[in-house]
Structures are given as C-alpha cells and as structure tokens.
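Researcher: We plan to redesign the surface later, but first we want a full-length starting point. Tokens attached.
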C-alpha cells in the first residue's frame, strides 16, 4: 500500500517541479570575445538569485517584437520576441530619488564604453570622474544609450555593471543595470532605434 502512495507523491512532486520548466526556459550565454572573457573574469559574479536569471518566457508585456520593457517594481527587463515570447533579465533600477518612467529609443550602442558622469552626478558625488572602458567602469561590458521623443539624449542608459551583487535592487542613479553577460546578450539581440518602455 505504501509504495503506490509514495510513487504518487513523487510523481506529483515531479509535476510541480516541472511546472517552472514549462514557464521559464534558460537561454544559452552569448559568445564572447577574448577581451570580454578577460575583462568579465575580473568582475566577480555572486551566485545569482534565480528570480533574476535570464529566461525565455511567455511575453507578459503585449508590446511589439523588438521592444524593451522595464518593470521597475519587478526589477525585470523584458526583450519582446516574435510568437508571444520574451527574454526576461533581472536588473538594478533607479533608487527612489532617481527612478524614472516613460518611453525612449536607443540611439547608440557601445561595447566597453567610456563613462562620462553627468554634471548633476558629479555635484552629488564629487569623487566620481570620467573613466575609460574596462572592468572597473560602472557601465560594464555594453551600454545602450536612450533618447527621448525629440531625439535628445536622456542621459539614461541600459548598461552592464561592476556591481553585479546589486541586481534585483533599486540602487542606481536612474540607469538600468544588468549583469555583464546579460547586457551582452541583450546588446546582440536589440536593433538600433528600438523602443524602450520604463514602467
């Protein structure tokens, strides 16, 4: 009598554990250049919280393919794919004082970009300074530069990070930070002039 119950219990447990597999599908890491591998190895990655891992999912946004949607409360970024699918990435968003929402477009993409902090940031934190691209640079491995509806630079970016331990937090000055491996993946997928919605 016990064995059928045990088998049924194990089967039910397996079915429950399989449910996330139906909803979330891990995606392979993008191919990296030699420089990517060398520099990304210098930014220690903490063990990732599975809630903020990169997954292919059913699209929850309803937006057109090629659109980026950032859900700040969820600390998630969605890249919308055809066939009602999306890639979901965990992100760091702006803290309460510097968060923003709205619609923008990507007007520039850059690998291992130099960082030029805006005057407002330097005023708040006099210790920050311009920096060449590299593993210590706060923009990380890639950056997507955002313009408003008139084409003016918003000064906000979607970019990598040298603080991957903050993914899932509200800790930036308004930019959307991603793990370096994730921002490379997004950079490879997203087109120039892609629409970005921050909610």
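Model: Full-length starting sequence:
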């Amino acid at each position: 009598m016990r064995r059928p119950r045990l088998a049924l219990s194990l089967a039910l447990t397996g079915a429950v554990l399989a449910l996330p597999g139906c909803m979330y599908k891990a995606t392979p890491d993008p191919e990296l250049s030699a420089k990517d591998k060398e520099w990304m190895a210098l930014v220690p990655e903490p063990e990732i919280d599975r809630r903020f891992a990169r997954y292919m999912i059913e699209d929850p946004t309803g937006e057109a393919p090629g659109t980026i949607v950032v859900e700040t409360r969820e600390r998630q970024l969605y890249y919308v794919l055809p066939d009602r699918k999306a890639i979901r990435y965990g992100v760091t968003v702006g803290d309460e004082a510097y968060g923003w929402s709205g619609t923008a477009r990507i007007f520039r993409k850059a690998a291992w970009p130099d960082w030029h902090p805006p005057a407002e940031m330097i005023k708040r934190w006099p210790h920050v300074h311009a920096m060449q691209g590299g593993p210590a640079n706060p923009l990380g491995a890639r950056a997507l530069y955002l313009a408003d509806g008139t084409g003016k630079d918003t000064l906000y970016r979607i970019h990598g990070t040298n603080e991957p331990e903050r993914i899932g937090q509200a800790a930036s000055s308004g930019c959307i930070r991603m793990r370096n491996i994730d921002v490379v993946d997004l950079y490879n997928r997203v087109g120039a002039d892609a629409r970005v919605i921050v909610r």
